[in-house]
Design goal:
The chain is built from nine helices and eleven strands. The protein is of the alpha/beta class and about 280 residues long. The protein has two domains: about 90 residues, Rossmann fold; about 120 residues, NAD(P)-binding Rossmann-like Domain (Rossmann fold, 3-Layer(aba) Sandwich). The site of NADPH dihydro-nicotinamide-adenine-dinucleotide phosphate has 25 residues, from helix 9.
Length: about 280
């Protein structure tokens, strides 16, 4: 049978621990603070930002949302980031992507202090992750690893296949699996025999963004499948990259969409912000 790994429940448990640690910090007069910059009125971004704000409130963080107009100029955004880099009540800064066209995404995200880069997207943090130094691990990959560990099955020695090689999911999750001593293969749009690669995998991380592209016949018995994909169907339904129905009663582990990686990404953002606060002490 398919064992669903409940990301919503795990995220709640983690956020409860963070809430307890935050209460202890607050008793000493320290409140973790997260600043989110949202430029424009992209509907999906508004929801993501609201969810992050809600999570901050739940764990007891200070949450500051900076909403800038769609036609905001680069200087305005850069000046705000500079101000937040120097603001002692703020321990984490993130810029909600995507940004409107007139703004240079890498110039803006690179302006964030590496010490407050709780998304873990900056070259300093990615490089540190790659060479095994202390880094803010990006939230979605960190969530994937926690979900795999939730099965209780050791990662060391397993064959892991990551589908997707983006800087925010595929590459960092592959590095993190390698760090855990998995044997890692990264697949992408030019991979010749995806099905054969997947059929060898004890662990699959699907991060493509194509509804139901991975089907039951591509997954071996006993595999752990982490479905990062979030795809909106025409009928409005949210589905992953994995076609759960096609798994039938195959013995395997799977993260549902929604309720798998999504809530864990936010819990890991809270985790990184708490970590940053402790490092700033
Ligand atoms: P990108 O579009 O940046 O990357 C997609 C990757 O998939 C690319 O590396 C691409 O290969 C690869 N790919 C495309 N087609 C195929 C194919 N047919 N076979 C194998 N690989 C293929 O996406 P992201 O990494 O940003 O996101 C991936 C998915 O995860 C999206 O659905 C996104 O919404 C979701 N997501 C969910 C999060 C969450 O919190 N739940 C957080 C972040 C993302 P190539 O490099 O060759 O083009």
């Amino acid at each position: 049978m398919v064992h669903l790994i409940d990301g919503k429940n795990l995220a709640q448990k983690i956020q409860l621990q963070i809430k307890e640690e935050t209460a202890a910090l607050k008793a000493k007069g320290i409140t973790p603070g997260l600043a989110v910059i949202l430029v424009g009125d992209d509907a999906a971004s508004q929801i993501y930002v609201r969810n992050k704000e809600k999570a901050c409130q739940e764990v007891g963080f200070l949450s500051k949302i900076y909403r800038l107009a769609t036609d905001a100029q680069e200087e305005e955004v850069l000046a705000l980031i500079e101000q937040l880099n120097n603001e002692t009540t703020i321990h984490g800064i993130l810029v909600q992507l995507p940004l409107p066209k007139q703004l240079n995404e890498s110039k803006i995200t690179n302006a964030i202090s590496p010490k407050k880069d709780v998304d873990g997207f900056l070259a300093e943090n990615m490089g540190a992750l790659l060479i095994g130094q202390q880094a803010f691990e990006p939230c979605t990959p960190q969530g994937c690893l926690r979900l795999i560990k939730e099965t209780g099955i050791p990662i060391a020695g397993k064959k892991a296949v990551v589908v997707g090689r983006s800087n925010i999911v595929g590459k960092p999750v592959a590095i993190m699996l390698l760090k855990e001593n998995a044997t890692v293969t990264i697949c992408h749009s030019k991979t010749s025999h995806l099905k054969e690669e997947l059929l060898n995998a004890d662990i699959i991380v699907a991060a493509v963004g194509q509804a139901h592209m991975i089907t039951g016949d591509m997954i071996k018995e006993g595999a752990i499948v982490i479905d990062v994909g979030t795809n909106r169907l025409e009928n409005g339904k949210l589905v992953g990259d994995v076609d759960q129905a096609s798994l039938g009663d195959k013995e395997c582990y799977l993260t549902p969409v929604p309720g798998g990686v999504g809530p864990m990404t936010i819990a890991m953002l809270m985790n990184n912000t708490l970590e940053s606060t402790k490092r700033h002490l």
